[in-house]
Amino acid sequence: MNETLNALICRHARNLLLAQGWPEETDVDQRNPNHPGWISIYVRLDAPRLATLLVNRHDGVLPLHLASAIQKLTGTGAELVLSGSQWQALPVLPADGTQVSFPYAGEWLAEDEIRAVLAAVRDAVRSVSCRVAEDARRIRAALTTTGQTLLTRQTRRFRLV
């Protein structure tokens, strides 16, 4: 059941990410298969994909620093990388399973803009991770059998339980 549960949780997490505008290449993995619902998100966001994700997350109305950051990143080679590591410290909160890295961001952005971009991405990761952790409990409950007989049907020599 654990493999089925983990597969369903990962599929659910991926569907949530795609529904929120994350790129098709986004991948999800269980942080620890023995603790279902704690996920890590893996994706490399170039400047156009990052801009699309952030604009979608804010319904087109961006805070000042975020709008400035997206404008400055347009046409650059900037990349933001989300990854997870099973060898890092155990997570405290569901979103702790995903590391966010924005290499060389200082080449294009001011410190306030970098903080705004990282905060927006972490917020997006947190919203999906927390939702998946909550939904994992429901998925697990749906897969757990109670052992009670739901239906008994008997015809002549055959009995269906």
TrEMBL record:
<protein>
    <recommendedName>
        <fullName>YchA</fullName>
    </recommendedName>
</protein>
